[in-house]
């Protein structure tokens, strides 16, 4: 595992493509991120009723950004009824998740967009990379998984992981992929199934790093904390164990500069343009 190099500019990871600029987890967002020059695209994956690997943050249609096939908005109280794990992909594709601007991102340009298959995203970006004459992009693939969702919004962990790994292998991008998850069960299974695959433990609570690693049972390649949890002590602890630090989701210029001072391996941001401007 490589140690962070002082003075090295971190990898730029476009969160859900570039959520601050285009509809999240859609082809327009990933294309724009690639055009901006990100090193890696970060995306989330869930499973449909017909066991397709879908790019989506929630395993349901978010009322904040998605519309019914009829074009009508989705009531927040009914969002989870539009359960992707109970819908075939042909039906999922009929919903629009691009015309409604996310309320937290006023700069986001709305446009028609659907939840794509992982294989569509990869094929599209590989083709665009060639057109732009740039090197192949990396993929940060977050498997969305929660124990409470087993059997309801997702298959059991072993099946969920197997479906994603099979897709990554078929797409021949394993060597450029890091697998991310909050659910330690997924990472533990992946560590045994594909020992060479870089794994990222995502953290969003105040538990000590040592506590997280003790439960995980192995040292991951990457740790991705909520940047608000990041301290010089945590950055130093990770560097001391040769664990790459890739915090999320850092958006404001002042926060980006503060995180840059801690010499992370990468930074995940909704605004890759803002981070690239600091390069």
UniProtKB/TrEMBL annotation:
Gene3D superfamilies for the chain: Phosphatidylinositol (PI) phosphodiesterase
Signal peptide: none
Pfam families recorded: GDPD
Domain of life: Bacteria
InterPro entries the record matches: GP_PDE_dom, PLC-like_Pdiesterase_TIM-brl
Domain GP-PDE: 10-279
Name this polypeptide is given: Glycerophosphodiester phosphodiesterase
Species this chain originates from: Hymenobacter terrestris
């Amino acid at each position: 595992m490589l140690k962070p190099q002082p003075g090295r500019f971190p990898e730029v990871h476009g969160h859900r493509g570039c959520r601050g600029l285009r509809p999240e987890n859609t082809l327009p967002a990933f294309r724009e991120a690639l055009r901006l020059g990100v090193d890696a695209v970060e995306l989330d994956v869930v499973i449909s009723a017909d066991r397709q690997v879908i790019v989506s943050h929630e395993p349901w249609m978010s009322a904040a950004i998605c519309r019914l096939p009829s074009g009508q908005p989705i009531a927040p109280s009914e969002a989870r009824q539009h359960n992707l794990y109970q819908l075939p992909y042909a039906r999922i594709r009929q919903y629009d998740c691009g015309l409604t601007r996310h309320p937290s991102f006023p700069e986001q340009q709305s446009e028609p967009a659907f939840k794509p298959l992982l294989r569509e995203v990869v094929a599209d970006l590989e083709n665009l990379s060639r057109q732009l004459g740039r090197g192949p992009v990396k993929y940060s693939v977050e498997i969305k998984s929660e124990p409470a969702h087993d059997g309801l919004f997702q298959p059991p962990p072993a099946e969920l992981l197997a479906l994603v790994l099979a897709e990554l292998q078929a797409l021949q991008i394993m060597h450029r992929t890091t697998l991310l998850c909050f659910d330690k069960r997924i990472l533990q299974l992946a560590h045994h199934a594909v020992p060479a695959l870089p794994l990222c433990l995502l953290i969003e609570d105040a538990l000590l790093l040592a506590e997280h690693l003790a439960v995980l049972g192995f040292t991951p390649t990457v740790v991705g904390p909520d940047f608000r949890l990041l301290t010089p002590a945590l950055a130093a602890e990770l560097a001391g164990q040769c664990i790459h630090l890739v915090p999320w989701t850092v958006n404001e210029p002042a926060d980006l500069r503060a995180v840059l001072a801690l010499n992370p391996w990468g930074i995940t941001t909704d605004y890759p343009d803002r981070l690239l401007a600091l390069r």
